Predict the 3D structure of the following.
Amino acid sequence: MSNVSGAVKSIQDIMRKDVGVDGDAQRISQMVWMIFLKIYDDREEELELTEPDFHSPIPERYRWRNWATNREGITGDALVKFIDDLFFALKTQLPTVGDVGKRAQVIRDVFEDTYNYMKSGTLMRQVINKINEIDFNSTADRHTFGDIYEQILRDLQSAGNAGEFYTPRAVTKFIIDRLAPKLDETIFDPACGTGGFLACAIDYKRQFVKSAADEAVLQSTIRGVEKKALPHMLCVTNMILHGIDTPSGIVHGNTLEKPYRDYGERDRVPVIATNPPFGGMEQDGIEGNFPSNLRTRETADLFMALIIKLLKPGGRAAVVLPDGFLFGEGVKTNLKQSLIEECNLHTIVRLPNGVFAPYTGIKTNILFFTKGTPTKDVWFYEHPYPPGVTSYNKSKPMRFEEFEVERAWWGEEADGFRAREVTKQAWKISAGDVAVRGYNLDLDNPHTPEAIRHDPDELLARYRQQQIGIQSIRDRLKSILADALGGKA
């Protein structure tokens, strides 16, 4: 552990001396593309031993082993010039056909919006030499890097990347455990970030892998899309570290840019797990890709509309959403009506404050639903803090073991969750009563004394949601007026 963590700390210390690297976000981005090339080269070494016909998509002179591994190798201005050439080659000169073309596309996507910020070739050589101290073919180092990788993600949050909230591994693991994807079921995350849900899905599915054919099935059933360059690169790196040799299912793009009507049967999937960015607003024009009753600029709502559409009949989803979705109106009401009428919204797990601290204090929920059968009852489970804990923090994060009580209580959807019981933490409401409430799903636990909420984060979140709802209504009215006037408004 100390070897890898020490190397990563040293890398960051060296980069702080470089005048070209401005702030934590650029430093992390710089470190990640360099580590990516080292991980990729280490993985290629393994593949060359197991696949006789293996060909690297990277030209020989640009493979990590041929320019980076010699401690006394290229440095200074010559190294800066070489890196310029390297980036040009990785973005524009890789093969395009066959299996090697698929591998090349992964690298092209990774480097499409990636930049070299370091101006000192001498400092860059020092960073490269530190990276070479880590052996990603060593099980111990690879496992240890998983911990370092988590730290990089936390650092990324602290670097001010608003909206890219780190989903605690306890939450991702619980969600995948409840969705229980089968080996041959494609699992999709339309806003996959750094790949936390997909990595958990790979770990879960590995229990079913008994042969090379099974492994091939696993590798073909992992899909994600990420808009931003750095999280996308981290996701691809994460997939390679989890044994997905050619993570071509991880796309660098925006799921919302494709018009809603253009998503068809071939796009539907059996399992979706995601924590879409919330509190963010999409760029002008994106909402125009959606039907008028679903038009909004709020990112999380657009993703919810798409998730419902992209599920196959019988498909299962789990989505992390803020409280604002539960009580919000306008487009949110339309979405919740769809969840009740077109899906079985069987469970809402209400998470306690601080799960996403310090990045946001907004309270969050996990919505579990299955498409194709209308909802009869919505069960709520209020997840409590464990004994002796009053809040989560970096040193005391949420743990997967905390979900043992939920797992024991859960039951089977196939029998209508008949085994479920009302407890101090669990209660239910009928679909009819949800409709009577105007599809407001913001239900407090009836078994705890009612308390007036004065939490400023929560009050501000409610205010923001109301403002977004008002703006959404304005936008819809403007759209209706424009349609009525033949586009003249």
Q: What stands out?
A: The chain has 17 helices and nine strands. The chain has two domains: 2-137, 162-450.
